[in-house]
Amino acid sequence: MAPNHDIATRALVVALKSPSGGKTTQQVVSITALSKRTVDSIYARAIKRGFDPNAVPLVIKDEYLEDAPRSGRPSKQTSEVQQSISQKPGTQHRYISCYCLSMSQEHGIQEDEANEEAWTDEEDESRTTCMVPGA
């Protein structure tokens, strides 16, 4: 069952193809413009999920027609978090690497300065240092 067919179209297929609807698969195909395979798949899946084609009156529930759950890792974000993110005014999506690059060029220290600060002397390594608060 293709996910692009809404529940109303699936309900129409099931209703038409059921014995009380009285339509053949080929007639349902011509009415709905779906493929024969799709029509048969929708009808078979509804029966598999509990639809009784011979019941009078005809009972078609959403649970017979819904999309099956998809495999994969579930989202960690709750719907409340997604709504709060989408409702924030002025939220801009940027790549962190581009943002950090521009920030480091404006406010950061140059590479040469960083190398000088990182340079350690052999004498410094041999001495023990003590940290003085506020120094």
What are the salient characteristics of this protein?
0% strand, 135 residues, mainly alpha, elongated, single chain
Account of the 3D structure:
By secondary structure, this protein is mainly α. Helix content is 52%, strand content 0%. It is built from eight helices and no strands. The relative contact order is 0.09. Residues 74-90 have a biased composition (Polar residues). Residues 111-125 have a biased composition (Acidic residues). Residues 66-91, 109-135 are annotated as: Disordered.
Major sheet attributes: none
Question: Which structural category fits the helices and strands?
Answer: mainly alpha
Parts with pLDDT < 50 across at least 5 consecutive residues: none
- Quaternary state of this entry equals single chain
SSE string, helix = H, strand = E? HHHHHHHH
Tally of individual helices? 8
**Total number of beta strands:** 0
Cα radius of gyration in angstroms = 33 Å
End-to-end span in angstroms? 71 Å
Q: What number is the mean pLDDT?
A: 77
Give the overall shape, derived from the CA principal axes: elongated
Q: Helicity level, as a percent range?
A: 40-55%
Strand fraction equals under 5%
Region (Disordered): 66-91, 109-135
Biased composition (Polar residues): 74-90
Biased composition (Acidic residues): 111-125
